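hiii, so i know i said id send this last week but things got crazy w the move. better late than never?? heres the sequnce for the chain we talked about at the cafe, plus the structure i predicted for it. fair warning i was half asleep when i ran it
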Amino acid sequence: MLILGLTGSIGMGKSTVAAHFKSRGIAVFDADSEVHRLYENEAIPLIEDAFPGTTTEAGVDRVQLAQALQGDAQNFAKLEAIVHPLVFRAQGQFLEREEKRGAKLVVLEIPLLFETGGEEKVDRVVVVSAGEIEQRARVLARPNMSEEKFEHILNLQMPDAEKRKRADYVVDTSGSFDHTTREIDIIIARLGDEKGGVFERWWKQQ
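okay and structure toks below
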């Protein structure tokens, strides 16, 4: 089973690319979606213990949590120490299920793949990219987004140019949807006969 890491900076089109992989019958693990699920389930008491007053019975209050994290790098590290192991466990369970199912190719969609050293846990990396003007327009069109918030997020992420250098494949989403999907289909075809080794070498040892 070959594990493909899918990553890219904010506003680059990762969700669109992930959806096309799914449409081709390839299972995708979405790290962001898993965090959302955790914030409504098992992460609630852990986050409440670390950041009192940031949760309700329904889940983590993201506004309150953001205020608790603001301006303190140690608080970000504390939150990551809670969330990352839970996401990692879910990734392992996903990969085990797909391996038992006989999957030949799976995708781990991880926004901060390079920033967290995740490239060591995948066989190949696809970086989703777009031009700076396109990226900015997409992000600032989102609800509750501001220039300040956008710049803060960018500062937490590796520059797009560096990600492109470290990628095995780059999908440019600046063009049409058809162009983007053709790029993805070419990657899928190229990986068709390739066998991965990371699952046996790394994930099965955990």
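btw Residues 73-101 form the longest helix (29 residues). thought thatd interest u
miss u guys!!
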